[in-house]
């Protein structure tokens, strides 16, 4: 697309944007996107991009879980948007080879090009096979559990205790992001960057990871020719992404150098103690002895960091936001944890109770609360696929080669036809069996938080373990209050983070 055409497009969009912005304040405005001449539905979505997930939910609810959307001619923007469980199963399981991520998705996340995050087919299968063997290694699992447990006991809980003692409100989203950044780095490289301290400024690498997801969201909503031109000119959001790219590469190079030094020190120590088996590394990098510092390895590491940090840190924030408003559910979880806590010794009034990862496996309500949070606030609020060949969806809609399919996970959890008329409510009981002693089975095409089919999340149980360890330890030791007057809304990003964070105050719980 030429620069002249883009200029003409912007001239058309500006008055339409202003008109629609004014119209959106009217109570009589239809939730359905207007199909404008030439520009089709593009202006309607641009007006609502700041609140896109809720807007898509309203439209999908009104149009029976599916609708088509087109951008201006020449942009190639042909979307089929769905949250229909039957379509989800078709896309992710029944006919998944016909719905790859596609070249456009790989271009959007070019910073992770060639990694499992962007590839399809045999390449994806090979990378998944290797990663699955790494994450299922008993020593790796034990190391990950110990790392999480020690970080909670020795760093997180003392820091929270201090914040409770001074009574100062703080951003729990920022804290969870820092906590998971440390854990992700430790799991990947065996190196702790020590970011979990609120008196430290945000690390450049953390800001850079946020930029990757924010610019990714921007690219999803714009014609490819527009953001590619910005990338070529190094302007706008792509300028920020270019800077983030350099920051992350430098950070990962420093981590690798630090890791090499620590590994060398361990080998020297091993020579003295004469036990090399105990000194073997159990981080992810240890499973890739042929690692080379190239673009592909860099892309894979960025993908691992984003998967480990963003999804868990974001979910924990939404868990605490909802539980702070549901003291009855907090009481139930504490009652469930009480038999475990009664078997532990407390050495003083200031002692923090830590729950071991294996101890949080049995509590049913704890997992139900976690799943209910993921239903309403999936950390990855949408999935993008490409149609490889003409197909007919179970809903009866035809899709053509090259069409883009957007699956709204955020909307899927809010559809009355899927979850019942109480779908907007935060109700953990929906996950429990009638006797309350077991979790109710829910198929993955209805609950897509951990993906589905051949792409199902390989780190699911590790993620659940980490989240349950943090939630149990924080709920048992502290009462949390969300400060009033906050605007709680998602930021424009591929990750469902809160735009303004979540300011809370803690109080040490009296046992």
From TrEMBL:
Belongs to the cytochrome P450 family. It comes from Triticum aestivum. It comes from the Eukaryota. This is Cytochrome P450. Residues 1-24 form the signal peptide. Gene3D superfamilies: Cytochrome P450 (1.10.630.10). Pfam families: p450. Heme binds at residue 457. GO terms for biological process: lipid metabolic process. Keywords: Heme, Iron, Membrane, Metal-binding, Monooxygenase, Oxidoreductase, Signal, Transmembrane, Transmembrane helix. PROSITE patterns: CYTOCHROME_P450 (PS00086). InterPro entries: Cyt_P450, Cyt_P450_CS, Cyt_P450_E_grp-I, Cyt_P450_sf. One of its GO terms (molecular function) is monooxygenase activity. Its cofactor is heme.
